[in-house]
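#help-structures

NK: newbie question. if I give both the sequence and a SMILES, will the prediction place the ligand too? trying with zinc ion
OV: yes, paste both and it writes out the complex. here, I ran yours:
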Amino acid sequence: MNNIEEIKSRIDIVDLVSETVKLRRTGKNYIGFCPFHSNTRTPAFVVFPESGTWRCFGECNEGGDIFRFLMKKEGWDFSETLHYLAQKAGITLEPLTPKKKEENAYEEKLSGILEEALIFFRHHLTQTEKGQAALAYLTEKRKLTSKTIETFELGYAPDGWEDGLAYFRNKGYSEKELLDCGLITKRSEQEGFYDRFRNRVTFPIRDANQRLCGFGARALLSEDNPKYLNSPQTLLFDKSALLYGLDKARKPIRTADQAVIVEGYFDVIGLYQSGFQNAVSPMGTALTPVQMRLLKRYTRKIILALDPDSAGEKATLKGLEVARDAMDHSDDFIFDPRGLVRTEARLDADIRVCSLPEGKDPDEIALEDQEKWKEIIDQAKPIITHVIDALVNGKNLDDPKTKSEIASKVVPLIKDVPNAVERDAYRQQLARVLHIDEQSLFSISEVQYISRGRSNRRKIETEPGSLETLASSEKSKIYNLEKHFILLLLKKPELVYDVDRYLKKNDLVPLSNSDVESGDLQLVFVLIMKSLQQVDQDAAEFILQNLPDDLVWLETEWEQVIHTGTSQDRILEDLARTLLILRKIKVNEKIKSLYLLQQQTDENEAAADLELQKELLDAIKTRGLVEKAQSIPLISD
Ligand SMILES: [Zn+2]
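OV: that's the protein plus ligand as structure tokens.
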């Protein structure tokens, strides 16, 4: 999180705006009189706590985040606003000191070394005799094609203790650098170092922006433990914040509006080869809140497809919180449906679980029979239904004790469902399955729930990923999209013209400041537009030179946003898609607000009402156009 995101997550927009504007709550949002234009009769100013934004539907017809609000209200520039808000949020701003710059440069260097390691491992897989066994394992045992092996950049770490070490020393890298990027390990009983990965198949792990962060590695010999070994925690590699495969799955997830969570590397790869490119893996640990938030940028529909032999079903049957052996036996995996139900609610997500046939991994199933995999995914059930089915399976439901045990496990889950209608539906479902009436279901479970629940409940509430952290992700949605858009444009400013042409073709209004409404990013957007209007300098150079000091962090992200070699068409597509998503979010906000304002308008204010009606129709028309544009592929493959 950069400073700006941190500030936004800490400062509540409703609190901030309320300091000067009287707000009234209506549903999820707040309305009031716009402080920027004179209006006293009909409120036209709406604050959206969820996205952390505001908008005036009256004369101003403008909106933004807390930064834009203060800049407009106080007439401050961005830097003044940043300093004010940082202080308010209790954040010490660290200017990008020479030291920080050095650190960023060092991370870049480490990632560069990893890229070289990747080439080293690939060479050993494809060009050496010793790599033959590994290659045979991938192609014969795992049924991967050479195209897939190429796509996933798989490699082979030779089995010498110092092959890699010698190779990289020779290239001029120090032991410290190799240690810092996790390629070597310090010997414990004597001086010196040795290669971390030996005689293993290697999987490069990239973040969503394609930056290489580390490796996963699978042993080729059954006596080598652990079976799977990852890079250690380094400056670049934080397992809890990475999802294997997301660099490739990002777009397919967005397109399918669905992400499938699988256990391991081979599941992701096998599914990809079978045409299911929306799978990612948390690499042997439980899904963390950070990973969930990562996914949520692309979809809210998440399907868990975890191996039945070790995870899901049996664990569920044993109790609701069961630790199981993780893939590399180093972390405990907690399958906690209660946590999932809560996460689902907090993230406004739709989390489902699918049942895999005993003893088969997703990649095996999909490589054998694509239809079968599709069917499994289609039949994924909501978590609670899944838990009920798993608990009931094979039980004697004539036994009252069994019934009460099951009820006492499921009722707490149902209580966590925030939606009353869904809650009722689950309660009915449970009562039906257990053949008891709803009332007694309630009383059986109530007693046990209270007696065993207290300490558990406490524990869950202090878990990481508390409400505040997750709520802030909603806020960052627009910001992240706008940031992505800006970063792409920074890379290719001249694509502004192509984007405009694309918009025009789809009857949509051209790019304007209102497409980038986060205070800091709008600043950069203006700069980009300016860069195109001058001829003295190269556009990128111009931007770099004029980028405000507080925003230099953009520079580093800028470098990473596009994988080298990405075609212009792809970038344009990414730009257009991101923009459409943003416009759709904003127009939806607008439509909701207009409905809301309409309800607030006095009946005798016919003129105002007519005005709102017209705006509403315009907004609905715009939404239609955006959706239409979204449904047409921009470029064909
Ligand atoms: Zn206004």
